[in-house]
């Protein structure tokens, strides 16, 4: 499969994850979010995306589950958040859909929470 972006064909797997992580950019993330009906990415979306990217690229390719994202974003945002707060940002699953938009490979972990 491929994702058409700026006149280029970006290769993805059948689930829409980038085959080559070097293809990722913030502009591509915005286009992917639009294609997945997320709409405009807010600061909170970017906080999750940047957290997921940091964990993957700087913590031995860790791909946090939703519970870990809740804990990290509660700390980042200075408030106790719930699972629903993350699903409001990434309705198909914060760890999986967020990871896809963050340009990460598909997680092999089972379950999102």
From TrEMBL:
Q: Where is it located?
A: Cytoplasm
Q: Does the keyword Nucleotidyltransferase apply?
A: no
Alphabetical list of InterPro entries matching this protein:
DsrC-like_C, DsrC-like_dom_sf, DsrC-like_N, DsrC/TusE
Q: Does the keyword Cytoplasm apply?
A: yes
Task: Provide the primary localization.
Answer: cytoplasm
Provide the alphabetized UniProt keywords. Answer: Cytoplasm
Spell out the molecular function terms from Gene Ontology: sulfur carrier activity
Give the UniProt record's GO annotations in the biological process aspect.
Answer: tRNA wobble position uridine thiolation
Instruction: Give me the Gene Ontology terms describing cellular component.
Output: cytoplasm
Q: Which family does it belong to?
A: Belongs to the DsrC/TusE family.
User: What is the protein named?
Assistant: TusE/DsrC/DsvC family sulfur relay protein
């Amino acid at each position: 499969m491929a994702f058409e972006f700026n006149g280029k064909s970006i290769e993805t797997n059948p689930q829409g994850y980038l085959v080559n992580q070097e293809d990722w950019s913030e502009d591509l993330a915005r286009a992917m979010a639009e294609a997945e009906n997320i709409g405009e990415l807010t600061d909170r979306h970017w906080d999750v995306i940047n957290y997921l990217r940091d964990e993957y690229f700087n913590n031995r390719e860790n791909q946090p589950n939703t519970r870990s994202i809740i804990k990290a974003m509660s700390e980042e945002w200075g408030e106790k958040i719930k699972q629903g707060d993350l699903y409001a940002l990434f309705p198909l699953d914060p760890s999986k859909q967020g990871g896809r938009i963050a340009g990460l490979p598909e997680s092999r972990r089972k379950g999102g929470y």
